[in-house]
Amino acid sequence: MSGGFVLDSRLEADTRHLTSLPLCDVRLMNDARFPWLVLVPRQPQLVELLDLSDEASATLWKEIRHIAAVLREIVPCDKINIGALGNIVRQLHIHIVARKEGDAAWPGPVWGSGRAQPYGADDLHSLAERLKRAMDVSG
């Protein structure tokens, strides 16, 4: 499934790989203001959701639901935002963001809201490990 797949360099720079699901890699956005996961289908040349086969589309939605549930379980939040924009990074990727009233962008979108505040090394490691454990247990 991954033959010819190359991760966009901006996604590589802004996120940390957590795990691989049957279709997608799960990556943690390095912005401590928002608990934020990104799913990237490991298929070459995908830009839009409609570029996926029916089977891959069904798998993607299953993975989105699974990862959103894990994020909601691990991170206290008021709302889970799910989106696929791709205006800057064209490679198909899905954002799953845990939002809390009063967060740095509330009630607006997280995209384009100020500058990312990278996690400290210990905080990044701790959150990544908690998420990976929850993905393994509930997967």
TrEMBL record:
GO molecular function, one term: catalytic activity
Pfam families (alphabetical): HIT
Domain HIT residues, every copy: 37-106
Name of the molecule in the record: HIT domain-containing protein
Listed SUPFAM superfamilies: HIT-like (SSF54197)
